[in-house]
Amino acid sequence: MNTVSYNREAWNKQSNSGSRWSIPVSDKTIRAAQKGDWNVILTPNKNVPTNWFGEIKGKKILCLASGGGQQAPILAAAGAIVTSFDNSDEQLAKDQLVADRNELDLTTVQGDMADLSALETESFDLIFHPVSNVFCEDISPVWKECYRVLKTGGRLLSGVMNPMFFLFDHEEAEKTGELQIKYSLPFSDTKSLPKEKLAEITQKGWPYEFSHSLEDQIGGQIDAGFVICGFYEDDWDEKATPLNNYTSMYISTLSRKINLE
């Protein structure tokens, strides 16, 4: 099964059905960003620290797998030259809708986050990559491609899922309020779920998800050549899973492409 193609169609469906991550920001939000009042998120709740960005006016930013009419248009309104690269046509259409409405400098490119061959080497000052590699089977190519297209001295801002999330059956936990370990890690919808559960997900058109170890998430960035310079954790919505009562669900990192030779 080609999970990239499947998830592309699944996210097109999610976008058309009004997913939280597919609601374009308002004209008011864009006008505020044009005046210097803006914030964006890598994870569901916490705003990214402003000092993680540096000066972005006139800088070339790649919004990687973050389509949906939200972060990319805000960064463009704040003065950046933005390219939004996403697997989903519909998510990119939301970015383009806001860009056209507010006359923003924003380019959209459709493709797989693990293959940025359409983008030139060392062409971006900053990459903004919110929680999305959970939809990617192998994330090592993602980090390597980010390193390639980023300029020396450039920044990679990433949000990732805490792999512990995938140990549990969260639908059952929502019913009973109790957490029971059910799956081993690394988790994969296509390999870990019983056939009937995978068939249900496929029938509903939900994107397939994949857990990734912290070694792959953090160590993978280091192996690609990045230096980790910033770190914070975040929770999901309060009632989304009882696991919120015990540990953070998300991790954000600031990494730099620095020539250490």
* CATH class bucket: Alpha Beta
| Strand line-up across the major sheet | 3-2-1-4-5-7-6
- The CATH topology is given as Rossmann fold
What is the typical, i.e. mean, pLDDT?
Answer: 95
Distance between the first and last residues' Cα = 42 Å
The second-level CATH architecture is: 3-Layer(aba) Sandwich
How many helices? The count is 9
What spatial form do the alpha-carbon principal axes imply?
globular
Structural class: alpha/beta
Biggest sheet, open or closed, and with what strands and sense?
7 strands, mixed
The gyration radius over C-alpha positions equals 18 Å
Share of residues in strands: 15-25%
| Helix-residue proportion | 25-40%
How many DSSP E strands?
Answer: 7
What is the count of distinct domains?
1
Q: State the low-pLDDT regions, or none.
A: none
- CATH superfamily name? Vaccinia Virus protein VP39
What is this structure, in a nutshell?
The chain has 261 residues and is α/β, with parallel strands linked by helices. It is built from nine helices and seven strands; from the N terminus they run ααβαβαββαβααααββ.
